[in-house]
């Protein structure tokens, strides 16, 4: 007889309702019921995946399926894309509903979010994995790090939408023009798949890219980084600089910014490397 266990008793039903409301994808891990077997097969860490701008939780699907087959519980979280402080607070609320250790994975701007969300949560978050991502230090912004090195063509591919805020103010969202999406974001993704990604992309608040980080969890939590050499969003030189500064265990792959879609096996491999260090 085997049972499923992800949450403390009494909280599983609450989280199921919560995940249905916010669109999280949760996979439970099966554990043996005998004390002796449990001693030899400890609970695996939960892998929490945070997407970045111009993507959504579905961008992790290929990674999620591989991690689930390997026996890991997985949460593919919805990123509000409103700003590092707001998005990190939301991600922390997700972490609060998970028992046991966590490996936190961020793609692109999601790296900025996990760096802030995990700070001070070393009791929960045991490893950070950055996938073609930002690893900002305190006082740095995503746009500032992008412009620190040449190579990004994102500015030529994005369009903006202005909207009114409830308080009477105005906001601006940015997204990649659909006709430029594949070349800019997902050049190594099949054309039909890239078209679906372009149609379903999540825009990010322009202010989020300019907002400065206030915490840098990679200073206290072991980190891994996957650098993408064909990236047109974040220059490869910027990725290497940030990874080296954080002393992250770094792997390089010839892939576009959409590496979780085009090379899910490479992404899964580095996530599992981090997960295996968790005791």
Automatic annotation (TrEMBL):
Positions of the AB hydrolase-1 domain: 47-268
Record-linked InterPro entries: AB_hydrolase_1, AB_hydrolase_fold, Sec-Metab_Biosynth_Hydrolase, TAT_signal
Entry superkingdom: Bacteria
Record field: transmembrane: none
Region forming the signal peptide: 1-27
Keyword presence, Signal: yes
PANTHER family found in the cross-reference section: AB HYDROLASE-1 DOMAIN-CONTAINING PROTEIN-RELATED, ESTERASE_LIPASE_THIOESTERASE DOMAIN-CONTAINING PROTEIN
Protein name: Alpha/beta hydrolase
Organism in which the protein naturally occurs: Streptomyces badius
């Amino acid at each position: 007889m085997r049972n499923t266990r992800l949450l403390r008793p009494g909280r599983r039903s609450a989280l199921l309702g919560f995940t249905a409301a916010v669109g999280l994808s949760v996979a439970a891990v099966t554990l043996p019921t005998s004390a002796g077997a449990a001693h030899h097969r400890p609970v695996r860490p939960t892998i929490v995946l945070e997407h970045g701008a111009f993507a959504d939780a579905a961008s992790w699907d290929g990674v999620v399926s591989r991690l689930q087959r390997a026996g890991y519980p997985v949460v593919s979280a919805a990123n509000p894309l409103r700003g590092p402080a707001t998005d990190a607070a939301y991600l922390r609320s997700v972490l609060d509903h998970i028992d046991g250790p966590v490996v936190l994975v961020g793609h692109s701007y999601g790296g900025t979010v996990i760096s802030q969300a995990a700070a001070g949560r070393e009791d929960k978050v045991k490893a950070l994995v950055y996938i073609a991502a930002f690893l900002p230090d305190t006082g740095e912004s995503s746009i500032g790090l992008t412009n620190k090195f040449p190579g990004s063509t994102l500015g030529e591919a994005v369009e903006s939408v202005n909207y009114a805020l409830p308080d009477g103010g105005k906001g601006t969202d940015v997204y990649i023009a659909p006709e430029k999406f594949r070349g800019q974001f997902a050049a190594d993704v099949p054309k039909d798949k890239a078209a679906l990604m372009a149609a379903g992309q999540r825009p990010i608040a322009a202010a989020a890219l300019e907002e400065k980080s206030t915490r840098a969890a990679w200073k206290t939590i072991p980190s891994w980084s996957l650098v993408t050499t064909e990236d047109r969003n974040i220059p490869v030189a910027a990725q290497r600089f940030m990874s080296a500064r954080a002393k992250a265990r770094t792997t390089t792959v010839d892939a576009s910014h959409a590496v979780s879609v085009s090379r899910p096996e490479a992404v899964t491999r580095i996530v599992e490397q981090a997960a295996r260090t968790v005791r």
